[in-house]
Every structure is written in structure tokens, then in C-alpha cells.
Design a protein that fits this description.
The complex is a heterodimer of chains A (187) and B (889). With 187 residues, chain A is of the alpha+beta class. Chain A folds into 2 domains: 95 residues, Nuclear Transport Factor 2, Chain: A (Roll), CATH 3.10.450.220; 80 residues, Archaeosine Trna-guanine Transglycosylase, Chain: A, domain 4, CATH 2.30.130. Helix content of chain A is 28%, strand content 29%. Chain A has 7 helices and 11 strands. In chain A, strands 7-11-10-9-6-8 form a 6-stranded mixed sheet. A 5-stranded antiparallel sheet of chain A has the order 1-2-3-4-5. In chain A, a hairpin with a 5-residue loop joins strand 9 and strand 10. The N terminus of chain B is likely disordered. In chain B, strands 1-2 form a two-stranded antiparallel sheet. Chain B is built from 37 helices and 3 strands. In chain B, strand 1 and strand 2 form a beta hairpin. Classes of the chains: A alpha+beta (187), B mainly alpha (889). At the A-B interface, helix 4, strand 8 and helix 6 of A face helix 26, strand 3 and helix 28 of B. Chain A: One of its GO terms (biological process) is ribosome assembly. Chain A: Keywords: Nucleus, Ribosome biogenesis, RNA-binding. Chain A: Required for proper 27S pre-rRNA processing and 60S ribosome subunit assembly. Chain A: Belongs to the NIP7 family. Chain A: Interacts with pre-ribosome complex.
Chain lengths: 187, 889
């Protein structure tokens, strides 16, 4: 387990920034709520076995007691480095993203299941969308009762969404909570 | 009658037989600055240029004819000699007996004028008759209702042109021209009734007038100066009155028979050129009245040269002459008005005349000039003029039937150009005018259907024709062609004759108007953005100054009103700029406050929501950024600086009417509104409470705020602790807090606020099935209004009011309040008040008395002390003397 180097940090932050925008500051500066420290420490990112974890400082200090080989996970895993060396956000980061998301999409109840099976969001399934979303922005997908379902990348801006037909793709799928079942062994 | 002009220096009695030399008459008027004798018919051709392309000459020196006699008359007078006495002696020959006669006559005349005035009724001459649609003149009885619209102008000119019955005035005027018969004879001519009135009047004459007359008669010989003065006054008044009568006469004749008397227009125009402002104004106003009545319901097209060459019947020639004269004099009149508009003393009258004309005859020629002037005056600094122009344009916009909507387009284009030229620094009234525009929304929809129908019909027809034609013979075909041709011609004729404007034209005009309006609105918004960006460092206090963006308010209301007509393509840009105006900070540069006031920013948010809601069918868009703005604006809101109604409106449109809310966002708003309703005034607090209630009912998860333990459990998300200073409602962690403010608010001094708060506390255990019944309660704006009116009543009463009352709805409360106030006013015990006042003043008196006594005491004690010192010193001196004496001894 080690802190991220500069290159890795920029990669991770860039990905997060796509979803959270200026709220990234809140993720980085989030004060920890557990631990004996006063003033409270921060949450920070750690790299462990090609995965990036998001955990409080006190937790990480305690985790150093465990040997590197035997440590499976610490805090929240938010993403992993692929074999080719690029960074991917995984489903586990969903809670973090949903709390700080800038662009959101709400799905109609009929379209939820399709999305949870790994399909993209179509215009027909769109119940609501945040204003001035641009194509390429990170978007968090919610159900109508405000439960985060997953996230993806907007395929069209809000303006274009108005005009397109019902079968056009609005959000490209990246991760959804269905993966907890579908890819249980990989996570 | 009461005003006269100092211009009339030389009053000249009309005593023609005894004049030793002729020509004083014309000379006198020349000196007065009037070109030509008044009684004579004025040759209009020299005053109004027949060619409608030029301005009418203001003064025409050729018209002033100075006769040989005039010159001689002047020669006989040296400058030092010019006074009334010499002139009188010159004109009348003898001195005293003639003067006596003159004065008797003057007095007489004056009395008769007063009589005329008193004989007067409230009608003015242009009301007395009105041409009915067939063109004939119908005399209205005096008792008939007077058209208010026509009456107004005379009063405002400062000397309401009151006039007696018309026929009598005309005859009396002519009679006065001669004036030579003795008084008794005249009296015989006049009817009995008149005599009665006169006697009545003579009785009622003010005493000073009588004494003045008596004075004149007794001291006639030796008080020349006084005589001259009075005479001057009298004749000035007389001239004024005569001109007024003349105006009335000419106007009447025009109204009676416009076709034959059309030349009189030039006479009226001539009167407008006078130097006496009052007369000129009267002339202008009477011309307006005349034009309003005689202008036909169509545009006049002057015949071309070719047409002029053709031989026509007498009637047509007459009509042509009538129309061309009307048109040329109308043009001359308008040119005069436009010229006078620059003159400050005539400005108001000129603009008013033009407004009346534009309102009455917007279809007639030269309306473009009228519209241009009226639009220009929309920005006038004079409130009266501006309001007048606004009203005119508004009525122009609402009554489009009068001019088929073309003038609307012209006016809108002119206004948008004006805004462009002045760089958006204009009076807000200009844009308020737009709000009265109406758009027919069915126009756009009707078109494609019609087209489809037409094309279907056409196809069918064609098909039928073809099927018909194929077997037909040549003759039949020819007949058929002829038929179709005539039918087409007939249709074209019908179309040109029909008064309903073509749908296509109307649609084109509408879209042009719309584009002009939205162009103006967008220009203003862009301007505001530019200026706010150029001054990013202004803090809020300095930006409260009024008039920084004068047009933004009406612009935003206009956008809200016409938002359903905005094209979807503009929507993105519009929302973007609105967002910037509402104070949305750029994504990176932190918080930059722009120079708009809080109310204006709130208005921006409201407009954005309206625009979105009106286009809801396209897509349901969540305006997150505007929510963030509102969330932050709540912090900046100050109860007495900013407008509470705007805040209530914003709460209503954004939170109360919105259907879906994030749990986090709703909780954040609930918490913040509750916190700030503690510091708002009570109307705002009530509006906030109504909103809170609504949000709590809608979002069942937010009801956790009403629980007693902080933390929020799993709902609170990542933010575990409530942060009251967060700028994003999502990150405030409001779910982790407790709504303790409600229990404080339930002890609010205002009964309705406290009852609202306590009712909310009791909804704690409410189950969802009950919520529907509660949702139909009052909206925030209504609650706000109710409470403001109630507060005003409160203030008016200024009495203590039992604060423990619990009243269910605001409406009821207001009603009861008014009654209670009255009761309390009457109930207050006078005796108690009296006693208290007595006590108070007694105390004050005692204070005074005490002070006085103290002063006296001080003075006396000081005197005693001084006396003691004096005695001591005296003693010492005496002792010293005695010592000296002893030593000497």
C-alpha cells in the first residue's frame, strides 16, 4: 500500500472531476469522523494491488499493522488500474460520486432494469436530466426515488436530448449496481 | 377670459366712421404680431403649401400689408409720444366725450362677455355636434352625455374653452363686429331669456368690478393712464375671446359639412401659427378634434398625374379635391406638431395631440411619423408625457383591428431600435408596453392543416378535372376554362375586398414582432451580463443603486410572459445567460458577485423556471444550478432591503410547485428556510413555513428532521454533520440536523406564524394517506400577501392585540382582524388615558417648578453670601481706618 504518485493522482482526479466538477474539493478535503485525532485528519487515496482506495488517515495508519500480502482491502475501493495502465472507476465509487455529482439523470421505473443489466440509457427511459449537461460529462444515474443505480458518460447535451427521438442513446453505460451480482468474482 | 397676453400693446376701439385716416386697423394688428386682419378671410394658399412635401412657412412676410396710411400714421407719432392717449386722440379726433362713449361701450362689451361666459355649459363646441357614420351632422342636446375623452384636453390647457350655445355665439360675434347700435336696441334683438340671465348676472357681479366701472366714469378725464391700462386689458381679453369664438365657429362649420368647408382647415392651421401660446394651443387641440372626426376610415392615395388628366365627373373631382386638401392640411398639421414638439412650451400639447391622433386614426397616412414621435417620447423625462405615450401604444397594441397589426410591427421595431441606440439605458416603461401585446397562438398551428386540406382538395379537383376533361369536347372545355378563370378572378376580388387580413400575412407579422421583442430582450440581458462582468468587484451594498439595469425588470417579466413562444434553439443560450445573471459563479473562479440586486437575481431564477415549465413537454430538466442560487440567495436576503413578494414568488415557483426534489436538496432547503424564518419578517417567515410544510409533506424521508435525535442515520450520506454555511444544498448534510427552529417559531409573536409552526410540529406523526388533504393549502405567495395586508392593518391600528389567538386560515384572520381593530379602538378607555396624561403632565409641571425654586434658592443664597462678604470687608476697612486714626493720634 502506497500513496499515489503524481501521474496516478492526476489520472484519478481527472476521472473524478468529470463527475463531480468543483465538488472534487469536498472529496479531497473531507474530514474524517472516526479516530482519536484532534483536529480530525483527512480522507486520502491509497494504491494497493493496482486498486485505488479511499480511506481516512486513521484507518490507514491502523491498516499498516497488516502485512501487504494479507491486506485485501482498506476503506472504499473507488477504481482500479487496468493491465494497460489506464485508470477505471468501479461500482464501489458510486456512493462517493452520487453524493457529489454535478450531472444527474433520473430513470423511469420501466427503464431501470434495462440499465441494471448493463445497457445504455435511451431517451425513452429518461425521466429527468440536469440542465446544461454536455456530451462527454460524467453522469450519475438515479432511480425516481433517488437511489443511485450507476454512472456513465453523457452521449448528448441536454439541448440535443430535447430533439432526439426516443431510441437515441443519452447516457453510455460505465458501471451499475447490477455488477455486484454479475461480476461478483471480479470486484 | 381670465388670461390675456401682454403682446397686445395697442388696443384699438372700433370706431370706423370717425377715423381720420384708415389703416390703423391693420397696423395695429401688425404691431401685435398677427399677420393680417383677423376678421377677413385668410387666404390659405399662402400659409399651407399645396405641395405636401414642404413645411408650411411659419410666418409669411408678404402677408403683412403696410398701407400708405399706416406709414403716415407712424410718421405722425414719434416714439416718445406713443401712448394710449395720443393714439386715442389720433384715432378718435375729439377727446373726452368720445372717450366716454368708448368706455361705455367697453363696459358694455365686457359685461356681455361675462354673460356669455356665465351662459356657458360644460359642453364644448366639438362635443355639441358629432357626425354620425353617414356623415351627416346630428346636433346633440346639451344634456346628452359628454364624451369624456373629448373633453379632457380643454381643461388641461389652463383655460377650458367654455363656450355658449353655438348659434348665439356666432351671431353675437358678428354683432360685436359692428357694435354701433345703442345698447337698448341690441337688447331688443336678444331674446327675453337672455335678458333674464343677464339681469341675474348683473346682480351677481363682483363688487370690485362695479366699483372699477364707477371709478372709470367718475375720473375719466384726468386718469388717462389708468384708462389706458384697463382698456388694454379689456381689448386683449376681447381679442382672445374673439379668436376663441372664431376657432369654435370654424371648427363647427367643418364638423357640420366637412366636404364643402374643407378649406377652413387652412384657416385653423393659420390660427395655430399665432404667437399667443394659448390661442395656438387651442388651435392645435381643436384641429385634433376636427381631424379625429373627419378623417375617413381608409388611407388616401393621391391620384397620379395620369389619373388627373382623365376626365372625371364633378363629384369625383370634388372628392379628389376634398381628399387632397385634407391630406395636405393633415400633413402640414403633423409637420407643425413635429416642429412644435421640440419647443418646450408646446411639447406637452404637441405630444398629446399626436397621441390622440395615433390612437384615433392609426390607419391613416403618415402614421409612421406619428409612431416615430410617440416612441421617441416613451423615454421622456416628463412623467405625464411618458405615461401618455405608453397608454397610446398600449391601446394601439390591444386594438389591432384598427390598423390590421401593421402599426404594431412598426412600433415594436422602433422601440427595439431605440433600445439599441440608447444602449439599454432607458426608462423601464418602454418595455412595459410590450406586455400588452397579444399573440394568436393558433395562427402557427392552423397553417399546416390548411395546407394539407388544400392540397388534398386540389389533388382531388385535379383528378376530377382530368377525368372530366378527357372525354369532353372542345366547346365544353372552353366553357369550363372560362368558368374557372372567372371563378379565380372572383376569388381574388373577394380577397382584396375582405377586411380580414390574410393568415399568412398575419403570421409573418407576428413572427417579425416576436423576433424583434426577443431580440430586444436578449440584447438587454447581454448588456446586463457585459456590464456585470466588467465590474465584478462591486459588492452588494454598492449595487443597490437604482437604475443600473433599468430595463432588466420588465425584460424578465416579459420573458416570463412570452416564454412559451421562445424557440427551443434559443433556450440553451437564454438559460446560460440567466444563470450567469442569477450570480452563478463560473466553474473555477470561485464566487464572483455581480452587480444585480437580490430581487433581480431571484427574478432571474423565477423566469428560468417559468421558461422551463412552459416547455415541459420537450424534456423534464432539473435546474440544479438555479436551486443552488436560490439556496445562496436566501443568505443574502434582507427583509427590508429586498422585495418580499419576489422571494415568496421564487419559493412558490421553485419549491412549492416543483414536483420532484432530491431528498438532500429538500432537506437542505427545509433547514435553511426554517433558520431564516427566525430572522425574516413575519410575512416572509409565513411564506417560508408554508414552503417547508409542503416540502416535508412531499418528501417523506425528510420528516426525519422532525425527530429529536441528530445524525440522520444512513440517510445523511457522506456529510455526517450539518454544515450551515455550505453553498451547495447537497453538501449541507441537513438530514443530520434537527428542525429545532419550529419549536421556537411556535412561540412567534405573530399568531399566524406561530400557529403554522405548531401545526407543523403536530404533523409529525402524520401518515402519507393524510398528506393529500393537506397539500391543497395556501401557496407561499398567497400566505405572504395575506400576512402583509394583515400587517398593514396591524400598523394602522397600532394597538396591542392579543397574541395568543389561534386562527386557522389567513383569509379568515384578515377579516376578523379588521373588525377587532375597530372594536379595540372603541373599547379603549378614555378615562384611563386621561388620567395617565394628567399624571404625566403633573409630573412635568412639578419638575419645572422644582427647577425654578432651586434657581431662586441659589440666587438668594448667593446674594446673602455676597452681602456677608461685603459687610466683612466694610468692617475690615473701618477697623483699618480706626487703626490709622489711632496711630495718627
Amino acid at each position: 500500500m502506497r500513496p499515489l504518485d503524481e501521474k496516478e493522482t492526476t489520472a484519478v482526479f481527472e476521472k473524478l472531476f468529470k463527475f463531480t466538477g468543483p465538488n472534487l474539493k469536498h472529496i479531497v478535503e473531507r474530514p474524517e469522523t472516526e479516530g482519536p485525532d484532534d483536529p480530525p485528519g483527512r480522507y486520502c487515496f491509497r494504491l494497493h494491488k493496482n486498486r485505488v482506495y479511499y480511506a481516512s488517515e486513521s484507518l490507514i495508519r491502523r491498516a499498516t499493522n497488516v502485512s501487504r500480502e494479507r491486506l485485501v482491502s482498506v476503506g472504499t475501493c473507488i477504481g482500479k488500474y487496468t493491465k494497460t495502465g489506464s485508470f477505471r472507476l468501479t461500482v464501489q465509487s458510486l456512493d462517493l460520486l452520487a453524493a457529489h455529482a454535478r450531472h444527474k439523470v433520473w430513470l423511469k421505473p420501466t427503464a431501470e432494469m434495462s440499465f441494471l443489466y448493463g445497457n445504455s440509457v435511451l431517451k425513452g427511459g429518461l425521466a429527468r436530466i440536469t440542465d446544461n449537461t454536455n456530451a462527454g460529462d460524467g453522469v450519475v444515474v438515479f432511480s425516481m426515488s433517488d437511489i443511485p443505480l450507476g454512472f456513465g458518460v453523457a452521449a448528448r447535451s441536454t439541448q440535443d436530448c430535447r430533439k432526439t427521438d426516443t431510441n437515441a442513446i443519452v447516457v453510455n453505460h460505465q458501471a451499475d449496481v447490477g455488477e455486484y451480482l454479475r461480476h461478483e468474482e471480479e470486484l | 377670459m381670465e388670461s390675456h397676453s401682454p403682446l397686445y400693446l395697442f388696443p384699438l376701439p372700433r370706431k370706423t366712421e370717425e377715423r381720420p385716416i384708415g389703416g390703423q386697423h391693420s397696423l395695429g394688428f401688425y404691431l401685435h404680431g398677427i399677420e393680417g386682419p383677423l376678421e377677413d378671410d385668410v387666404d390659405g394658399a399662402s400659409i399651407i403649401n399645396e405641395d405636401p412635401g414642404d413645411f408650411p412657412p411659419e410666418t409669411c412676410p408678404d402677408d403683412l400689408q403696410i398701407s400708405y396710411h399706416d406709414c403716415r400714421f407712424i410718421e405722425r407719432l414719434t416714439i416718445s409720444e406713443i401712448n394710449t392717449h395720443t393714439i386715442l386722440s389720433l384715432t378718435t379726433g375729439e377727446n373726452s366725450p368720445e372717450n366716454l362713449e368708448i368706455f361705455q361701450k367697453l363696459r358694455d362689451r365686457r359685461r356681455r362677455e361675462r354673460l356669455l361666459e356665465a351662459n356657458d355649459t360644460e359642453t364644448n363646441w366639438c362635443d355639441a355636434t358629432s357626425p354620425n357614420p353617414s356623415g351627416r351632422v346630428r346636433h346633440r342636446s346639451r344634456k346628452q352625455t359628454v364624451n369624456l375623452h373629448e373633453v379632457w384636453n380643454w381643461r388641461e390647457l389652463g383655460h377650458g374653452l367654455k363656450s355658449p350655445g353655438l348659434g348665439r355665439r356666432g351671431s353675437s360675434c358678428r354683432r360685436r363686429g359692428r357694435q354701433l347700435e345703442p345698447r337698448r336696441v341690441r337688447r331688443d334683438i336678444v331674446g327675453r331669456k337672455w335678458r333674464e340671465v343677464r339681469e341675474l348676472l348683473q346682480k351677481n357681479r363682483p363688487r370690485e368690478e362695479m366699483s372699477l366701472d364707477r371709478f372709470l366714469f367718475t375720473n375719466l378725464a384726468d386718469r388717462d393712464d389708468d384708462i389706458a391700462k384697463v382698456e388694454k386689458e379689456l381689448s386683449a381679453e376681447e381679442v382672445f375671446a374673439r379668436k376663441k369664438i372664431k376657432l369654435a365657429e370654424v371648427g363647427m362649420s367643418l364638423l357640420e359639412d366637412p366636404e364643402s368647408n374643407i378649406k377652413c382647415l387652412k384657416e385653423l392651421l393659420h390660427i395655430c401659427n399665432e404667437k399667443d401660446h394659448n390661442i395656438a394651443k387651442l388651435g392645435l387641440m381643436s384641429l385634433v378634434a376636427v381631424f379625429k372626426d373627419i378623417i375617413p376610415g381608409y388611407r388616401i392615395r393621391l391620384p397620379t398625374e395620369k389619373e388627373l388628366e382623365m376626365k372625371v365627373s364633378k363629384e369625383i373631382r370634388q372628392t379628389r379635391f376634398y381628399e387632397s386638401t385634407l391630406l395636405s392640411s393633415y400633413k402640414a398639421y403633423l409637420l407643425k406638431l413635429i416642429a412644435l414638439e421640440e419647443d418646450p412650451s408646446f411639447h406637452c400639447v404637441a405630444v398629446r395631440c399626436m397621441c390622440i391622433l395615433l390612437d384615433a386614426v392609426p390607419h391613416f397616412n403618415f402614421r409612421e411619423n406619428l409612431v416615430a414621435v410617440v416612441v421617441r417620447n416613451l423615454n421622456s423625462s416628463d412623467d405625464v408625457v411618458r405615461k401618455l405615450c405608453c397608454e397610446t401604444l398600449r391601446s394601439l397594441f390591444t386594438n389591432e383591428g384598427k390598423h390590421e397589426g401593421q402599426v404594431t410591427l412598426e412600433a415594436v421595431l422602433l422601440i427595439s431600435e431605440l433600445v439599441k441606440a440608447h444602449d439599454c439605458h432607458l426608462h423601464p416603461d418602454i418595455l412595459e408596453v410590450f406586455l400588452s401585446l397579444k399573440f394568436d397562438e393558433d395562427l402557427g398551428k392552423a397553417r399546416p392543416k390548411e395546407n394539407a386540406k388544400v392540397s388534398k382538395k386540389k389533388k382531388r379537383k385535379k383528378y376530377l378535372e382530368q377525368s372530366n376533361q378527357l372525354p369532353s369536347t372542345d366547346g365544353k372545355r372552353r366553357k369550363h376554362e372560362l368558368m374557372t378563370k372567372t371563378r379565380e378572378e372572383l376569388n381574388a376580388d373577394m380577397k382584396s375586398v375582405s377586411f380580414t387580413p390574410d393568415n399568412d400575412e398575419r403570421r409573418a407579422a407576428q413572427s417579425e414582432i416576436l423576433s424583434a421583442i426577443f431580440g430586444t430582450y436578449f440584447r438587454i440581458i447581454r448588456h446586463c451580463m457585459d456590464s456585470s462582468l466588467s465590474r465584478p468587484m462591486l459588492n452588494d451594498i454598492s449595487s443597490i443603486r437604482l437604475g443600473q439595469h433599468p430595463l432588466l425588470g420588465p425584460c424578465l417579466t416579459g420573458l416570463g410572459k412570452f416564454s412559451h413562444l421562445i424557440d427551443l434553439d434559443f433556450m440553451g443560450a437564454l438559460m446560460g445567460s440567466l444563470k450567469k445573471l442569477a450570480g452563478h459563479s463560473g466553474s473555477h473562479c470561485g464566487s464572483t458577485s455581480n452587480s444585480l440586486t437580490v430581487s433581480e437575481k431571484l427574478q432571474c431564477c423565477i423566469v428560468a423556471f417559468r421558461v422551463m415549465r412552459n416547455n415541459l413537454d420537450a424534456l423534464n430538466v432539473d435546474l440544479q444550478e438555479f436551486y443552488v442560487q436560490l439556496y445562496n440567495l436566501l443568505l443574502e436576503y434582507r427583509p427590508f432591503r429586498d422585495r418580499g413578494d419576489v422571494l415568496a414568488e421564487a419559493l412558490k415557483t421553485m419549491l412549492w410547485e416543483g414536483k420532484q426534489h432530491d431528498m438532500h436538496r429538500a432537506a437542505a432547503f427545509v433547514k435553511r428556510l426554517a433558520t431564516f424564518s427566525l430572522s425574516f419578517g413575519s410575512p416572509e417567515a409565513l411564506a417560508a413555513l408554508v414552503t417547508i410544510k409542503h416540502l416535508l409533506l412531499r418528501n417523506s424521508k425528510c420528516r426525519g428532521l422532525l425527530e429529536n435525535d441528530p445524525g440522520g442515520g444512513s440517510l445523511s450520506g457522506l456529510v455526517v454533520k450539518y454544515r450551515p454555511d455550505a453553498s451547495d444544498p447537497h453538501l449541507s448534510g441537513a438530514l443530520a440536523s434537527v428542525l429545532w427552529e419550529l419549536s421556537l417559531l411556535s412561540k412567534h409573536y405573530n399568531p399566524s406564524v406561530s400557529s403554522a409552526a405548531s401545526s407543523m410540529l403536530s404533523t409529525e406523526g402524520m401518515n402519507p394517506s393524510q398528506t393529500q388533504a393537506f397539500l391543497s393549502t395556501v401557496s407561499p405567495t398567497k400566505a405572504f400577501e395575506d400576512l402583509t395586508t394583515e400587517q398593514e392593518l396591524f400598523k394602522a391600528a397600532n394597538k396591542k392585540f392579543s397574541p395568543s389567538r389561534k386562527i386557522k386560515s389567513g383569509n379568515e384572520f384578515v377579516l376578523m382582524n379588521a373588525e377587532d381593530v375597530r372594536k379595540i379602538e372603541s373599547v379603549v378607555d378614555e378615562d384611563v388615558v386621561e388620567g395617565k396624561f394628567e399624571e404625566h403632565f403633573k409630573l412635568l409641571k412639578d419638575f419645572d417648578e422644582n427647577e425654578r425654586l432651586r434657581l431662586e434658592l441659589d440666587r438668594t443664597s448667593a446674594a446673602i453670601r455676597l452681602y456677608g462678604e461685603y459687610r466683612q470687608q466694610k468692617k475690615l476697612k473701618r477697623k483699618a481706618k480706626e487703626d490709622k486714626k489711632r496711630k495718627c493720634l
